[in-house]
Design goal:
Structural class: alpha/beta
Number of strands: 5
Low-confidence stretches: 126-171
Distance between the termini: 24 Å
Mean pLDDT: 75
Helix content: 25-40%
Order of helices and strands: EHEHEHEHEH
Shape: globular
Number of helices: 5
Strand content: 5-15%
Strand order of the largest sheet: 2-1-3-4-5
Largest sheet: 5 strands, parallel
Radius of gyration: 14 Å
Length: 171
């Protein structure tokens, strides 16, 4: 499985993310900017995108909207990472259709748990994202670094809106 990770402020969280995911035998493709992340996401077609909200040239919400509106990538889960998680951030994440939001700083185990939930939605019960109050978003695999996209499982949200996911983190 491939995970695309988009870095932000260079606070070191991107290293935590990459190491934690590689330790779980996930292929990780990293990007240092939003522009680079979008190019890699389109080329690699990852199973999951982990993206910092704050990045040098584009924010995580924009990357999330790109993924969710893309004809081939629209069902790809996006996990946004932010140093601040308040009503405004959650509202913007919901508008971008993010699948979940992770608050920084975080433990590697928490990241791995969220990534596992997004890649294997039926494996364990999961609380619906704030933007999906009526149900649970269905998610597929995460894959990064591959030149060929794996088959994707259909994903849908039974609630009001769906959180999006993005590539590489750091804030």
């Amino acid at each position: 499985e491939v995970v695309d990770v988009a870095a932000g402020a260079g606070d070191g969280q991107d290293v935590v993310v990459e190491r934690a995911l590689v330790a779980k035998q996930l292929d990780v493709v990293s990007a240092a900017s939003g522009t680079e992340a979008i190019a890699q996401i389109e080329r690699e077609q990852p199973d999951l995108v982990v993206c910092d909200v704050v990045m040098p040239d584009r924010d995580g919400y924009e990357i999330c909207r790109f993924v969710k509106s893309h004809p081939r990538l629209g069902r790809t889960p996006v996990l946004l990472i932010s140093g601040i998680v308040n009503a405004s951030v959650l509202e913007q994440a919901a508008e971008a259709r993010s699948d979940d939001v992770l608050r920084k700083p975080f433990e590697a185990a928490e990241l791995v748990r969220k990534v596992s939930e997004l890649l294997n939605p039926g494996a364990a019960p999961r609380r619906a994202p704030a933007a999906c109050p009526g149900g649970r978003a269905q998610r597929g695999r995460v894959r990064v670094g591959s030149t060929r996209a794996p088959p994707r499982k259909p994903r849908r949200c039974e609630g009001a809106a769906r959180h999006a996911q993005v590539s590489r983190l750091a804030d």
